[in-house]
Amino acid sequence: MTHTTHMTKTYTVTVRHEGGEARRGPVTMGQANMIRCMLRDEPEHINIHAVWPVPGGTTTESAIDALRALVVRHEALRTTFPHAPGEVPREQVVSSEGEFTVTVLDHEELPPEGYAEDVARRARVDRFHLDRDFGLRISLIAVEGVPLSVALAASHAVTDISALSVLEEDWLDLLAGRTLPAVTAFTPLDLAAEEATPGGLRKAEASLRHWERIIRTGPQAMFAEPGAVGTEVEAEQLTLRSTRGARALALVAERTGGLPSTVLLTAWCALLAHRTGQSSCVAAVPTSNRFLPRLARSVNTVSQDALLSLDVRVPSFDALLRAAWGAALNAYRHSRFDAVRLWEMIDAVTYERGSRFARDVVFNDVSALPTGSTEDSDGPGLDVVRGPAQVLPARVLTFVHETAPVLRLGLWVDPALFAPGEAEGFLTGLVRLLEAAATGDVPLAELTGVTGVRPVERGGNWRRVDGSWVSPPEVADLLSRALGGVPVHVAPEGPDEEGLTAFLACGGSPFTPAQAHAALMEALPGHPGVLAPRRYVIVRDAPAGADRTGAWLRQPILMEGAGRDRRV
User: Fold this and answer.
1) Which three-class secondary structure state does DSSP give residue 482?
2) Is 93 in contact with 25 (CB distance < 8 Å)?
């Protein structure tokens, strides 16, 4: 929703800065990852934004002076990425001087609630030019010359959400007249140098092996179910604010000895796996790669996913909590990688497996970062409100903003998978699970009764095959369409359904198993209920009983195989 209000004037201030060391060097793995996304994705989807409240008594001049001091203090804000046209940046350059602009929006009266958020969101829609643009687009919102808030959009190659929170805290300290301590966190160039050491390279290799194990054996998508189509969804924001949830979370942590962050992650994973009917919860947990001390307050983009795989086949919540700490730590330790090599590995492994890895679940816990929140223990017991919609390359995205004294979460879910009211019910169910676990261990078999959240109903045509939920009729339909409409029958292999066999009638245009597999893999994106057959059996003509496996087996076989021998 776009707000309008009468302005007295809008003007732009050009701010010169000088100080700090001029440096240059290679980009970090995190920067390379985000640059790759920025060159591929729409800017409003990959750029980030924030709104900072301005303390009372601040003048426009002092607000701008503090912004200048931030730029001098943090190398990331003085960084550009030179590159030739058509090439991907591989180098970063830190300047010792330069300039940036601040747009002042000075109003005659108080703008409506949400105005600053709108300003920040609008600033996201234009692409940042990596070779020359300052990494922040800053608007200072004022009423009759008195600053109220800063609305900014940021290049994801320069900062991430965590870095913006560090900048906000530093900025507020500067306005309060505090002396900031020396920067001891990794600068981007410091991190790039550490990543290039033998130890850093070993960590990156270990990360690739961690990801490969999960992608080879885990569910290809958490939301493989009816209605899960496409690769991007427009989802409405839901915000949970709950003092009940915060009190329950603290009590569970006290009862079990677990960290509140781990308790919340465990409850979220348990409920998500219960809702999706999965035996494990596979989720991207991006901010968790800041668990090392010199990364915690780094003003940099450290946005590389930690990939969590938590097996929920345990009897109770407490047993799952004990497993979650190790699983989370394992994910955090393997969150630094060469993004190009990672996706080369994913492409190779998924082609071999016949799957399509879906990053459809994201859990981003930023509760340890400064928020500037004014929440207190007198907040709502449990309140869920709807906010603006945005397009996401995920089916469920959760941001944890605060855990005490109010539990505050942001949630976006695919509306095609969650009926009206079901998304609110998921958040309510999370609070109910925490409240139940606050007084004693909770059997996971009782989650429906405890939380009110029901597992998805997939219907009799769905099978669990090779660790993933699969619809054999959908596999047959997609494979048929990928090959121009030839008759296809798909059947599970053996009693344990470890794989699928596809029978194909080629007619007068014979093709190979490799060609059939390549065609299906090309059509696979956006179809999480489809897993490629392990074996392709090619016959000339479809039998009379084309819906029966036995009838296909009686046909003369022209060719059969796995189809993974080579790309076609």
Assistant:
1) helix
2) no
